[in-house]
Protein 1
Amino acid sequence: WDDADFSRGVGTTFYQEFLTLNTAKPPFVNDVEAKIRRYMRTSYSAVWTLRITWEKAPAHTARTDTRKTNTYQAVLTTDGFRSYLLILYQDGGMRWDYSQLSAANVLIGYS
């Protein structure tokens, strides 16, 4: 994970909110629920979901290279009691050159 830099006019960020309490769920929300049920081995029915997409985002600092971009999403969802976050990357994974990052003491994981 690193900072994206949109200062050079490369890349886009957009979001979509899904309010699904007492309404029909779109296929995207059904897919999110299925992933949570599968990986967390729990029953889950979303009442709210937010999808944020960073498309063709260059790494910080973009002034050095705007050719290496990433497209990724964060999906936040809750059933009103539990909340989950899914991080999704384009096929091929993270494409930024991590050897050029300003910080070398990076910790990757979850808690």
Note: The two ends are 16 Å apart (CA to CA).
Protein 2
Amino acid sequence: ALRLLFKMLSSCSKVGDPRPGQPYKGGNFCAFLPDNREGQKTAVLLRKAFERGLTFQIKSCNGEERVAWGLIPHKTSWDGGKARNGYPDAQYLREVCTVL
């Protein structure tokens, strides 16, 4: 399995975020892909999306701004099936590549 680790630091939101100039909390995020040709191809696309600022967004939660997953679906668990953002999910790689 491929494991993608993202460490998002706390900072202040920018123009285009829900509340520009407000501090937000960062966090550690982890996603999983199968270690095969399709998984590796998807990892390259996910990296490009991350570099372009498309992977995360600032969301308000209980009056606090924090980094959260954006609109690109990620598998955050290796098991539990589609309902728990995990595998097995036979359609995931095709679906995420369509989004990317």
Note: The chain has one domain: 2-99.
